[in-house]
Amino acid sequence: MAHPQKSIADMSIGEKGVICCFQDEDMSLKLLEMGCLPGTEVKMSNKTPFGGPVCIKVSGYALSLRKDEAATIMIR
Amino acid sequence: MKTYAKIALVGNPNSGKSSLFNQLTGLNQKVGNFPGVTVDKKTGICPITPTTSVQIIDLPGTYSLYPKSLDERVVMDIMANPKDKSYPDMVVVVVDAASLKRNLLLFTEIRDLGLPVILALNMLDVAKDSGINIDKSLLQKKLQVPVVAINARTGEGIADLKNTIAQHIPATKEVTNGKVHSFIDASIFAPEVVGQIKDVFGVHNDYLAIQYAHQAESLPFLSLSEKEQIEQLRQKYNFKHSLLQAKETIARYERIDELIGQAIREEQKEEKEDLSTKIDKVLLHPFWGYVVFFTVLLLMFQAIFAWASYPQDLIDGGIAALNEYLQSVLPESMLVSLLTDGLIAGIGGILIFVPQIAILFAFIAILEESGYMARVVVLMDKWMRKFGLNGKSVVPLMSGMACAVPAIMATRNIDNWKDRLITIMVTPLMSCSARIPIYTILIALVVPDTTVAGFLNLQGIALMAMYLLGFLAAIFSALLMKVILKAKGRSFLIMEVPVYKMPRWGNVGITIIEKVKAFVLEAGKIIIAISIVLWVMASYGPSDKMERAEAEIKTEKPYLTEEALANEVASRKLEYSYAGHFGKWMEPVIKPLGYDWKIGIALLTSFAAREVFVGTLSTIYSVGSDTEDTETIKERMLKETHADTGLPVYTPALAFSLLIFYAFAMQCMSTLAIVHRETKGWKWPMIQLFYMTALAYVSAFVVYNLLK
Ligand SMILES: Nc1nc2c(ncn2[C@@H]2O[C@H](COP(=O)(O)OP(=O)(O)OP(=O)(O)O)[C@@H](O)[C@H]2O)c(=O)[nH]1
Ligand SMILES: [Mg+2]
Question: Are B196 and B53 in contact (CB under 8 A)?
């Protein structure tokens, strides 16, 4: 499982992944609260054009976050 | 005064707290299907048994006791301070059963503060739809608090909740001193700091003590020296805020998993997408998403213009007929003239806009209730950020189309102060419902009522263009502020996107009625006061010049017919009245924009509230003419001519100049007051007033001189 190079921002629509770790401490605090815990499965559901926010499905609900925010969540 | 036991409603954003509040208290707190609707606390009384009542406190939603924005902070400020006047005797934690685990995080935090808690399990219908079943009694056993299933939307289970509150409400304000079973042991994270804070500050609860250490700077009830003391403790024991907060959150989720794993049963209907996901394939589509959004807006403006015109014509005609009738049956006197020319003319200037305002509020209510608003935030975030705003600015900007006052309150949900300030500053540039009267009347005067492209009404398009203009002014002003202000802190979007819901039509109806009522009453109060003052000022003058008006005209223009003479006399009298003097006095200032002194009077009165403009004009033109048959407002304006040249006053150049002026000018005392409150000072509202007035003046000047 040594591929923490891929982040949520790199996922394509419909793709699934499992959160492994975060790259930004401040952001991770907020994300943890929102149920994005390491080991949780996520699924990319929507992307907006020109690098706008993305929507993911996590812990049974839809969460939207900016692309640069998504890039701090690494998946395996 | 009777004191009631206090029950606070706490929970994640959009979990249904305000809906529950309304069920319990019978009040009408705003409800909407997106996170961050409630931004301040609100209280109401609820009878729980035939003999006892309790006070219910509705609070903004939050995901945890670590606040990120101003609205979330309200919750922590109350929960951390037993001396706060809203400190509850009991907390009802409202959870969204469809994402129970995430919702329970806050529940465990509240519980660990040692507060008596009831868990209200809401949105079970939504959970069921996505195949989630919850074993309520097992949950109750594991969490060791009363669990009640409710549906805050339909009212199911509310009686049950009341009973449970009645049974469990503590008789006295006992401090539970951490005796209750706590979910995690807060002291293990920083034993020394927790111990010392408990000793020094007399805090009994471990979790509250560690929260002092985490959030000392922002707790309003701690003094400066106390904050320093805590800071020293943190330094001494090397208290790592972020790390410990992360550890705590993870520990809580682990505990929640352990406890409720068995109580939740998810049907594995894998790969079957729920309805919201399917709808979002279109509404959040990189291309179609935007097409739909603009279509929705287009439809809204078409509706406001095209559909509203029928009831509007009825109201306008009805008021004219009423005036005519009154004038024919009542004896001619000053009082009757005050009633017909002053009051009814003025009030008519408000009532005829009721259909449009109702349609506008209906649209906004539907956008908010369906859950679409949150999608607009997502679609617009990238674009808004280029202009120094934030996706979340969309909510204030859109609701600013109804009224800037609640819209500015809604900015509390924006976490970043700079983004929030910019949003506050530019929201009043969005065209609010009070501008509808001016827009409608002037567009109807100068834009032909034709259909283009088969179905689009040209006047509807003109109206949309006015809104677009307001929006463009707002975002470019935001860009200007972005460049001028120095950046402070970072901003997040991270936002829950709620499932779509059918708007509750009853609620939409109530919203419309309430808003229309408020509009008519507010504007009505002002217009009645202004109409009376204005009528007096327009009917009396400083010297006996008014009496001489008739003789003057007779010598100047002896050739006039009787009717024309009477008209000229009335208008000359108005000129010599106090109001006339006033208007004349300010004429030099507004002349460059193309306005005469009569419009000047209306401008002046609308500085308090812009919706009175049309009413004022209507009163002025009505006093300033002597026609027997009363006309509608539009007819009066069309007939208005320049005294010297005889040409119509309302040329396209003047109309567009006025339109632009009203689009940009800050003419609303309530908005200035709310900006003062939200920015805690006069600096920003004053900048806003000067900026917007200057923008309005200069743009109107340019437009008038280009079109003249
Ligand atoms: N299906 C369903 N919808 C519900 C239920 N309870 C509330 N709602 C809807 O959920 C949405 C949010 O309700 P609110 O009462 O505004 O939620 P809130 O917790 O006050 O939200 P914030 O003020 O943003 O924190 C509204 O559209 C309600 O109609 C329920 O039990 N079932
Ligand atoms: Mg609410």
Answer: no
Phi, psi of B114 (to 5 degrees): 90, 15
Residue range B669-676: mean pLDDT, rounded: 89
pLDDT in tens, B242-281: 999 999 999 999 999 999 888 888 876 655 678 888 899 9
Q: In this model, does residue B112 exceed pLDDT 90?
A: yes
- Nearest of B483, B496, B548 to residue B63 by alpha carbon: B496
Q: Return d(Cα B80, Cα B87) in angstroms, integer.
A: 8
ipTM above 0.90 for this complex: yes
Mean pLDDT over each residue of chain B, to the nearest integer: 88
Indicate the residue of B250, B286, B391 with minimum beta-carbon distance to A32: B250
Give me the residues paired with residue B456 across strands.
B452
Closest atom of ligand 1 relative to the B34 alpha carbon: 24
Confidence band, pLDDT 50/70/90 cuts, at residue B352: confident
In a domain? residue A30: yes
Are B105 and B130 a contacting pair, CB within 8 Å? no
* % chain B with pLDDT above 70: 96
**Which residues line the pocket of ligand 1, CB cutoff 6 A?**
B 11, 13-19, 31-33, 35-38, 60-61, 122-123, 125-126, 151-153, 369, 501, 504
Tokens of residue B157, six digits: 């289970």
Is the Cβ–Cβ distance between B376 and B398 less than 8 Å? Answer: yes
Instruction: Give this prediction's pTM.
Output: 0.87
The domain that contains A21 carries what CATH number? Answer: 2.30.30.90
Identify the burial level of B536 via C-beta atoms within 10 angstroms of its C-beta, where 0-12 means exposed, 13-18 middle and 19 or more buried.
middle
pLDDT at residue B208 greater than cutoff 90: yes
Count: domains in chain A: 1
CATH number for the segment(s) B5-177: 3.40.50.300
Residues that place a CB less than 5 A from ion ligand 2: B 17-18, 37-38
Domain ranges, ordered by start, for chain B: 5-177, 186-266, 288-434+450-484, 525-707
Tally C-beta pairs within 8 A across A and B.
112
What is the domain range of residue A38? 6-75
Helices (H), B608-682: 613-623, 633-639, 652-664, 669-679
How many CA atoms lie less than 13 Å away from B348 in the CB half-sphere? 29
pLDDT tens, B272-329?
A: 678 888 899 999 999 999 999 989 988 887 787 777 878 888 888 888 888 888 888 8
Report which of residues B289 and B560 the model is more confident about.
B289
Would residue A1 count as lying in a domain? no
Q: Which of B413, B396, B398, B411 is nearest to B495 (CA)?
A: B413
- Between the alpha carbon of residue A58 and those of residues B261, B472, B584, the distances in Å are 17, 36, 67
Whether the CB-CB separation of B83 and B9 falls below 8 Å is answered with no
Whether B627 has a pLDDT exceeding 60, the answer reads: no
Tokens of B178: 């951490």
Asked if residue A40 belongs to a domain, the reply is: yes
**Average pLDDT for B583-593:** 89
